[in-house]
Amino acid sequence: MFGPLMPVSKNRRKNKTKNTKKPAIKVLQKKKLAADVSQDIPDRKFMEKMMAQITNAAFAPDPFAGDGLLEAPDHQDPLRQAQDMMYDAWEADTKRERIALARQALKISDLCADAYLLLAEEEAKDIIQARKYYEQAVDAGRQALGDALFEDAEGDFWLVLETRPFMRAKAALAQTLWDLGERQEAAEHVKHMLQLNPGDNQGMRTILKSWLFTLNDFAGVEELLVEYEEDSLAEWCYSKAFLMFRQSGAKSSGAIRVLKHAVETNHFVPDLLLGTKRMPKSLPPHYSIGSKEEAIIYVDQNRENWSATKGALQWLAENR
Asked: What segment(s) does the record annotate as region Disordered (predicted)?
């Protein structure tokens, strides 16, 4: 799912005291993107492959440069070779080719998290087997990164290119655990992801918010809303209204006021939640603020909570 770039948390954690010896990592420069995404976005893994190739070229040894200040990466590193193979695997035409390349990548390095991730998505026969692959992916990613990086890069974790296979695996494992009913553990995985990367490039905070509502963890929802209080998306506006309804009841003037503001932010949401407009069979690949596509994505993630809460839909219909 692609949408506007997720705003960075206002309450960013201050940098901790760093180790004097830094791990050899590549950090990508932050870039501002337009909030309104109105055209197709290239596949993120393809973009990541391009960034890896550009970075490798930038650090490539120059026989005429002599000793430089920057240490060139080890292009013979097995994990680097395995990861490059996974970029090829994602672009392979057939499922058989993709699985074969993933297996080959694991022979080169058993710490290639993306290889386990692909096997979970392409080869697993059921959700139980997929879970095992996802767990292997998370473990491999953690070992590949090393403990020091988790401390040194906390706060800007996604900007370190090598962390992304681990973060992809962690997101997939969290969703699988949720689907299996291990919901508290699933939520803890996402909380850890947001601790590592509060900028939330993967959009995990919206998923966590919905899960916390399901778990009746209203304090957790409120903390999340405060952490990202500058977020003006319909997702956040309707969630604030829903939280106030759950906490204060249908007659709360404050809840009604917040709901009306949410409707002003995106007027497509009520009809989709109430069922007066049909949801599409598939989710849109991206959206812009205030659009029907944004409403579809919000309703897809949150209608179960609205429907399960007594009086919530009636309150919405009466006060929209």
From this structure: 1-22
